[in-house]
User: What shape does this take?
Amino acid sequence: MKNQHDELHELGWNDWFEQRAVCKPTDAVARVAAVDRDQLLLVNQAGHFRAKLSGSYLHHHHVSQELPCVGDWVCVERQRGDDLGMIRALIERRTSLRRKSAGNSIEHQMIAANIDYVVIVQSCQFDFNLNRLERYLVMVLDGGAEPFILLTKTDLVDPNVLASQLAEIASAGITVPILPLSNVTRDGLDDLKRLLLPGKTYCFVGSSGVGKSTLINQLIGHQRLETGVVSGTGEGRHTTVRRELIRLEGGALVIDNPGMREFGILGADRGIGGSYSSISAVSSLCRYRNCSHTDEPGCAVLAAMHAGEISPESLENFHKLRKESNFNDMSYAEKRKKDRDFGRYIKSAKKDLRKG
Ligand SMILES: Nc1nc2c(ncn2[C@@H]2O[C@H](COP(=O)(O)OP(=O)(O)OP(=O)(O)O)[C@@H](O)[C@H]2O)c(=O)[nH]1
Ligand SMILES: [Mg+2]
Ligand SMILES: [Zn+2]
Assistant: This one.
């Protein structure tokens, strides 16, 4: 039997979603391409169109993580002749990328949903930082997507600098694929293009100014996204302010992101387990199930370290990340702004609802 959502596969739809789609027969399925203040830009086989959240949806969902974000699949009702759709339901997320929300220890701030790969971008020139890289890895693995590392601006550093950065990553026990690349010389660009698979979703994250939008423009083939100059130190100025899902000619789906400031980590326990798979594999052999691998008798991780199977640095990183996992270092001003933006979003959506 022909699958009723076949046309959506190009946008990332698959059997996993098919089995979980709870839409009414009269509803359409669509993917969120962007979220603007009180409207969402959706895309499906009919192309792009705007939509709002239904009153009942807003009534029943109060936390930000329950609202559709870029990459989500939704059930949407579209009356004939009405160009504004009404979102009725959110289809379960297969993966997500989220960070701990401002001020609230259990609420999550959604970055994107249903991503296959998160491309963590750091610039060799000013931005390279192993500790931050590890935090990103934890965040990615926690959400169930595959991480991938890009080191940009290789044209601005001596080859030795790049080599030592690569060595630093390797010695931390990180085995995630890494691609060095320059948007200026275009070295590495073809390698990246080969890695981008049709129907898969790639979310680009990293500090402001590392070249995320410049890179996506190169992949698109024209200046679709705005890019910005960097300061003397190489820091960016937060040029990108909107997340957007874009389909490349080759069929891959990419999401550009605003530059990220510091972020808190969610569920770091699970994330670290994936990042340092050697440690988590061995830890199942510890005598105590909740072993912290610091000084417990019968600790298999410590034994493996003494036997030279796990490096002391990897274990140290493991402890460090775990300690940081409850720590959220977004600035106070940023927290306040996030709260306000979200409050405005709900308020204006409710107002429009009354008008309608
Ligand atoms: N030399 C050099 N400059 C680059 C490279 N990639 C990007 N740039 C420059 O870096 C600046 C910032 O690039 P953007 O693409 O705007 O950076 P971004 O990561 O999107 O930044 P935000 O949107 O603020 O998060 C621009 O002036 C780019 O031309 C590169 O590989 N080499
Ligand atoms: Mg940008
Ligand atoms: Zn242990």
User: Anything to note?
Assistant: The chain is about 30% helix and 20% strand. Residues 264-275, 325-336 have pLDDT under 50 and may be disordered. The radius of gyration is 22 Å. The chain has three domains: 6-95+339-355, 100-264, 268-324.
